[in-house]
Design a protein that fits this description.
The protein is α/β, with parallel strands linked by helices and about 250 residues long. The protein has helices at about 20-35, 50-65, 80-90, 120-130, 155-165, 185-195, 220-230, and strands at about 10-15, 40-45, 70-75, 90-95, 105-110, 145-150, 175-180, 200, 235-240, 245-250. The longest helix is centred in the first third of the chain and has 14 residues, at about 50-65. The N and C termini lie far apart (about 45 Å).
Length: about 250
């Protein structure tokens, strides 16, 4: 049986039209129930789209209704999901993002406890659960879980990155970062600075609608011009959820 809802990178479409709060709630409930954990611990992160808070809240409601605890990590890049899963020993991660798409789109993708995206089989099981329209997905749903903020998630992510790349010395390197007004706008400049680089940042003022708008990895020519024109050493352009990057050398 082929999947109908999940694509190659989760569920994605126009926010409020295809990707609705009702769908997010149902996905959160079904995915939580399919973890097999007695009281699933689920971290939820998002990019900077204006629809992200609504969808994250709906996901959290779904997690709680399935007897799991939803941990709201706020705005973080997609690669933070597997690191936080392993750091905290959680059961599931949900990322609210439509990657490089315009702000009007949004999406939801899940990561299993091992840090990898859900298998095709797991996604198919979630779709079947939604098709059945079950009110509950597990015995745990007889009791509701909690929804709370995961304080310090960004700092914990930065510490994990710094630990992994501690031997990478960027002192004296002049770097430009195009953060696409997206999920990497805060943590990307910070980790480069901690590793010693001199950092110039563009597209780091998200307003909910300017994500990927004339910036980021889909518009790398802007980064190239700034690197070349300013005499910088190199530059990196991220996409909206920070899991894709393109680079420009000093010649643009």
């Amino acid at each position: 049986m082929a999947r109908k809802l999940f694509g190659t990178d989760g569920v994605r479409g126009r926010a409020g039209d295809f990707v609705t709060a009702e769908l997010a709630l149902a996905l959160g409930r079904a995915a939580t129930g399919n973890t097999g954990a007695q009281r699933p611990q689920v971290v939820i992160l998002r990019d900077t789209r204006e629809s992200g808070e609504m969808l994250a809240a709906a996901l959290a409601a779904g997690v709680s209704s399935a007897g799991g605890d939803a941990l709201l990590a706020g705005v973080l890049p997609t690669p933070a999901a597997p690191l936080l899963l392993r750091r905290y020993g959680l059961d599931l991660a949900a990322v609210v993002s439509a990657s490089h798409n315009p702000f009007a789109d949004n999406g939801i993708k899940f990561f299993a406890a091992d840090g990898y995206k859900l298998s095709d089989e797991a996604e198919l099981a979630i779709e079947r659960e939604l098709e059945r329209g079950s009110a509950t997905t597990s015995a745990a749903a007889a009791r509701s879980g909690r929804v709370r903020e995961l304080r310090g998630a960004a700092e914990d992510y930065l510490r994990e990155l710094h630990t992994r790349f501690a031997e990478l010395q960027l002192c004296g390197l002049d770097v430009v970062l195009d953060c696409a007004n997206g999920a990497a706008y805060s943590v990307a400049p910070e980790i480069f600075r901690r590793l010693g680089a001199e950092v110039t940042v563009i597209a780091d003022e998200p307003d909910g609608r300017n994500i990927n708008d004339g910036c980021g990895s889909t518009h790398v020519e802007r980064l190239a011009q700034i690197v070349r024109g300013g005499g910088h050493d190199l530059g990196f352009a991220f996409d909206g959820d920070g899991d894709r990057v393109l680079a420009a050398d000093r010649r643009g």
